[in-house]
Predict the structure.
Amino acid sequence: MQNLILSDSSRSIAGVVLLTIVTIEFGGWFLTRIVRGAVEMTEFQKAFARAGHGHAGMLVTLGLVNLLLADAAGLDGVTGSIARLGVPAAAVLMSAGFFFSSTGRGEVVRPNKLIVLVWIGALCLAAGVVTTGIGLLAA
């Protein structure tokens, strides 16, 4: 079996990403409060809370895998940075977009202008995975 050696940038990013999992755990605890009725929210807000939490967990996992693939492709410089940071940035931006675009008082039933964070995150996600994919095909 070959030893896995991460690049310095992948190792640093992976360390930070792993530490963010504690915030995702907190989000899971908060979701249990929502479904028990301890936090008043509209159905729209509940749906966006679930979407934000789900995207965070899935994208953090994908981000960790993508670090390994970027290293396997030998990506460095600007393309390496886009490949390594695109997916973790998407995890933050898309989750924040779901959470913050559904905040407000009263009967919140549609997203506010912060929904743009979801779409910026989607662009980061696409940039990260496309860069890694092309890098792997070219390697």
User: Anything to note?
Assistant: Residues 8-138 form one domain. The CA atoms of residues 48 and 127 lie 24 Å apart.
